[in-house]
Amino acid sequence: MRKLFVALTLLSATLSTAAFAQAGRGTDAEQKACTRDVQKFCRPVIDQGDFTILACLKENRAKISQACDQVLKNHNQ
After folding, report:
1. CA–CA separation, 33 vs 26, rounded Å?
2. Cβ pair 34, 58 in contact under 8 A
3. DSSP state of 24
4. Which of 12, 44, 52, 71 keeps 20 to 30 A from 1, CA to CA?
5. What CA–CA distances, in Å, run from 56 to 15, 19, 27?
6. Domain ranges, ordered by start, for the chain
7. Cβ atoms within 10 A of the Cβ of 37, count?
8. pTM of the predicted protein model
9. Sign of the Cα pseudo-torsion (10, 15, 21, 27, in order)
10. Positive or negative torsion for Cα 11, 17, 19, 20
11. Predicted local distance difference test score (pLDDT) of residue 33
């Protein structure tokens, strides 16, 4: 679960996929699935930490992509 939080934070900071993958946090598919949703719905809270970003995605669950929703489900969120 912590990996998901870190992954979402790094996604929101728009780090390169290569650097993200090297860190071993999240798969390329998970990164791709949630990047747009984090940027679209959670940009105002990006600097407020992992749990805030996760809460934002959950609050916007009805609006996020099916792929990102599946990532959350896969991580029991």
Report:
1. 11
2. no
3. T
4. 44
5. 20, 24, 21
6. 2-74
7. 24
8. 0.67
9. positive
10. positive
11. 94
